[in-house]
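Q: I'm writing up a methods section and want to include an example of the input and output format. Could you take the sequence below and give the corresponding predicted structure tokens, formatted cleanly so I can copy it straight into the document?
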Amino acid sequence: MKIKIKEMPIEKVLVRPMGIHRSPVRPTWIFRLLLKLLSIQDLRATHFTYREIGMERLGKGEPCLVLMNHSSFIDLKIAATILYPRPFNTVCTSDGFVGKNWLLRAIGCIPTRKFVTDMALVRDMLYAVKDLKSSVLLFPEASYSFDGTATPLPDSLGKCLKILGVPVVMIRTYGAFARDPLYNNLKLRKVDVSADMEYLLSPEEIQEKSAGELNEAIQERFGFDNFRWQQENGIRIAEDFRADCLNRVLYKCPHCGTEGQMLGQGSRISCGSCGKAYELTEYGYMEAVEGETEFEHIPDWYRWERESVRRELEQGSYLLDVAVDICVIVDTKSVYRVGKGRLRHTAAGFHLTGCDGKLDYVQKPGASYSLYADYYWYEVGDVICIGNGDLLYYCFPTEGGDVVAKTRLATEELYKMGRRDGGRRAAGRRASDKMLDRAAGIG
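A: Here is the clean output for your methods example:
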């Protein structure tokens, strides 16, 4: 899927009228049916099946909050099929509305900015379940998994569940990541896909639990490891491109420690510095072509990279400093390419400069618990997105090798390190709670 991009000086973009907030609409039966029909071909190709667990507890016309793990582009097709004919509104990233605003509004999409405090979002979700009597589909991870394991969930999720006060249902997919992992440039593998749809929490159970207890319960249910699932179930992936671009995730050589010199091609990934190569087997294991296999499990390799980043942060040696192409979005007509710049990331946070001196943006480490980072974003390139409620900056690195995954890891570790201070953590929770209350109109 591509996106419309227009070249425009940043000073002209910033004076364009911002899009006004619009309340979500309940999707009509024709759009619900259309979504289901458009999903048939892909789901048939994956021999899709699903199970319902405890769903008899949910009333036929009772709105609910549907939480779904985020694996690949097939997720919405799965939801549209197994939720049909139940009306539901989908929370999705605001850049998805570019060039197709009317259509996404009509099918019930609610725009939000990833990893940015969005007070209007909770209000829109509350409007959907209470006024429209429509369910809400939410991908709480807010971003695709890089290594096939769960990504962090927002601390505000438990509070959101209490504000909405509706039943919570979970859709968990199997095989979706293996079929179309984000790193693999949208190349589809022949893998069967299935899902479980389970009734998790009733309104009464939500009322009885604290926001913290709800967070823990949801976090536990969102624990998964797609490569382990493949291995334990003997899922064979024989495509000869299965390791293409795997260097986006495994950017650091475990043998010599060099970063940015890994190359994933065919079924192998190798280091351009020391020459050591690893085979990604048909059953999801890593095997050294020669010598010791440091990590046979990709999530273990990725976890080691995370630990390495954390050590760099603690030692004060972590640094990202790369040239970038910069785009911004101020309306749904186009993505605007505003010029070139430099993105710097340290323990002090992000610093983006560019556009011939007209852009200077600073973002502190405590701004977000994770980072909107993506591979092959709308077929444009790998992207790091930073910003706030006013404006998002989409930064496409043009040098430095594979830096996207490391930057996301560093962002997450910096946030966790900043929360070591119990006072700051408690204050942050109180501030977050107050914002959610105001957004919902109950404070």
